[in-house]
What does this fold into?
Amino acid sequence: MTVALNSRFASLNDCSLLAEWNHQLIQDEGHSNPMTIEQLEERMRGWLASGEYQSVIFEAQNVSVAYALFRETNDEIYLRQFFVARHQRHTGIGSQAMRKLFTDFWSHNKRWTVSVLVKNIPAVAFWHAMGYADYALTLEITPNAKLPQGA
It folds into this structure.
């Protein structure tokens, strides 16, 4: 079922909500970011105040249900964060929100990119369904990792 989804650019007044959702996103995707909600809010405030990033909040029936945080350059739109409230997942809100970004906010003359953790299988499937294709894989050795023999 499709609901009426409204969208608006986030303001500095939205930073506490965005930070809380960013914290949930970090948990949900299994990211190693150790930042607190307060630190995430400060970072979000800096990004939005400087214009380095823009954020769009999506609302259904006057309730905030999702957000996107992205940076635009001369040739690329990089989607850094995309989050749908946990109780709104699997309702079509995410797909609908992405379609709004594609049609109402983003230039079709630029490359659109998003990064996703490879272990986050549901997110990888979602991005493929949205039309994104695999481009690169970042590999890492974490601090204190056990190294192979002879390394």
Residues 15-29 form the longest helix (15 residues). The first strand starts at residue 5 and ends at 9. The chain has a mean pLDDT of 91.
